[in-house]
Amino acid sequence: MPEKLKTENLSGSWNYHPDLPLQDPSIFQWPPRPAYLVKWLTFNWLMLSERVIMLLMAFALWAFFYPSLETTQTFVVGWILQIWAINFAMVFICSGGLHWYFYIHKGQGKKLKFERRDQGKNNRLWNFSDQVRDNMFWSLGSGVLQLTGFQVVTMWLMANGYAPTITFASNPVWFILALILVPIWSAFHFYWVHRLLHVPFLYKRVHSLHHRNVNIGPWSGFSMHPVEHFIYLTTLCIHWVVATHPIHLFFHIVYQGPGAAMSHTGYEDLLIKDKRRLALGTFYHQLHHRYYECNYGNQEMPWDRWFGTFHDGSEAATVETRARKKRMHA
């Protein structure tokens, strides 16, 4: 039977929300929970999930689209433009496809949609007076350009032996483990740079551009100020010092670029015949876009809970978050 979907929360301020208060789904718990860890691995890596889709994209990019490491040993305009064009198309197709399905085609109406509102239009808050066009401008302009820049430099470092590399044949255990660790490293890095971006000086001048998207959509995920794009994408520098394969880099590229669209759909899951088939956005991060000074990381890492910045969706957490925001921006 299809799962019954809730349409309002306790205060009626959401179109949809999961059961509240939010529980702790982090794999970093004490004492360890082996059964939960097995369940987490199965859900994320042995079933159809965002990560499996992004990993398949990474293998396809490695096999058919991106230039080989041998090609990237010398900086040449041709292969650099090739990477830029592929990244542009990848972000456009992923963000645009999700936007078309959820917001133009309205493939599942407002089922599992967190906010009641649609994307903003005719508002001078946005460049071009349109939220989607504004988000497209920053995502495809600064976002794709800087994503490509970090990738080009990293591939050149790998190709010339300045960054350590591995193959599956030389180290199969680390090859597989590194794939699992890429999203965990990304979450760790994201929490701390996100806290940095919420320092009032940087927030007002940089991060506020992303936070104009209180009501998020697929194009908002990668829509950032150029300074924020640079800070956000420094997560890729891990490949400069830790031995990886180009597939790990490409998986990381997909995770940071198109993956941002998946996590900002504004919907919790993709429904097919009223059944949840693919987890997409999270209410955890939706709360951050509404209340700002909370949930800086994601659900897998425990930092928000450990450092007192966790919003569990309750009214008490909202009061506490608003008080913290007032203190920070006094």
Automatic annotation (TrEMBL):
<protein>
    <submittedName>
        <fullName>Sterol desaturase family protein</fullName>
    </submittedName>
</protein>
<feature type="transmembrane region" description="Helical">
    <location>
        <begin position="171"/>
        <end position="193"/>
    </location>
</feature>
<feature type="transmembrane region" description="Helical">
    <location>
        <begin position="81"/>
        <end position="103"/>
    </location>
</feature>
<dbReference type="Pfam" id="PF04116">
    <property type="entry name" value="FA_hydroxylase"/>
</dbReference>
<dbReference type="InterPro" id="IPR050307">
    <property type="entry name" value="Sterol_Desaturase_Related"/>
</dbReference>
<feature type="transmembrane region" description="Helical">
    <location>
        <begin position="137"/>
        <end position="159"/>
    </location>
</feature>
<feature type="transmembrane region" description="Helical">
    <location>
        <begin position="52"/>
        <end position="69"/>
    </location>
</feature>
<dbReference type="InterPro" id="IPR006694">
    <property type="entry name" value="Fatty_acid_hydroxylase"/>
</dbReference>
<keyword id="KW-1133">Transmembrane helix</keyword>
<keyword id="KW-0472">Membrane</keyword>
<keyword id="KW-0812">Transmembrane</keyword>
<feature type="domain" description="Fatty acid hydroxylase">
    <location>
        <begin position="180"/>
        <end position="309"/>
    </location>
</feature>
